[in-house]
Amino acid sequence: DILRIGVFGSYNAPFWGVGSDLDVVVVLRRSPCPFWERSRYFDTMSLPVSVDLLVYTEEEFEKLEGRFAQVMQKEVRWP
Q1: Residues 6+ apart with CB under 8 A from 27
Q2: pLDDT score of 29
Q3: From CA 33, how far away is CA 20, in angstroms rounded?
Q4: Which of the chain's termini has less CB crowding within 10 Å, N or C?
Q5: Strand 2-8 and strand 51-57: pairing?
Q6: Cα separation of 19 and 40, whole Å?
Q7: CA–CA gap between residue 25 and residue 5 (Å, rounded)
Q8: Spatial distance between the Cα atoms of 57 and 29, rounded to a whole number of angstroms
């Protein structure tokens, strides 16, 4: 089950432009697949921009630490 989908990075900031990619984070309730394998189950090829997709379980997302966790807390926009 998908719990949340958010956008962060250049598309979520005033400095996006031609060539910018779309940084997307997906939070799942749970997953039997390892982190590195999950994004391949989402079709991003049909989108008009390049996509960097991060797919976390709810537990993994809540346990994020360090600089990246700070960026995620500050920048991710959840619809």
Answers
A1: 2, 3, 4, 5, 6, 56, 57, 58, 61
A2: 98
A3: 29
A4: C
A5: unpaired
A6: 22
A7: 6
A8: 6
* Segments forming the whole domain that contains residue 25: 2-75
Residue with tokens 């807390």: 73
Q: Please list, in sequence order, all residues whose beta carbon lies within 8 angstroms of the beta carbon of residue 42, skipping any fewer than 6 positions away.
A: 26, 53, 55
**What token pair was written down for 21?**
């990619």
List residues bridging with 7 in a β-sheet.
Answer: 24, 77
Domain count, the chain: 1
Query: How confident is the model over 49-67, as pLDDT tens digits?
Result: 899 999 999 999 999 999 9
Q: Rounded to two decimals, what is the model's pTM?
A: 0.86
Find out whether 57 and 29 touch, Cβ atoms under 8 Å: yes
Task: Enter the DSSP assignment of 10.
Answer: G
Please tell me the distance from the alpha carbon of residue 79 to that of residue 2, in angstroms, as a whole number: 13
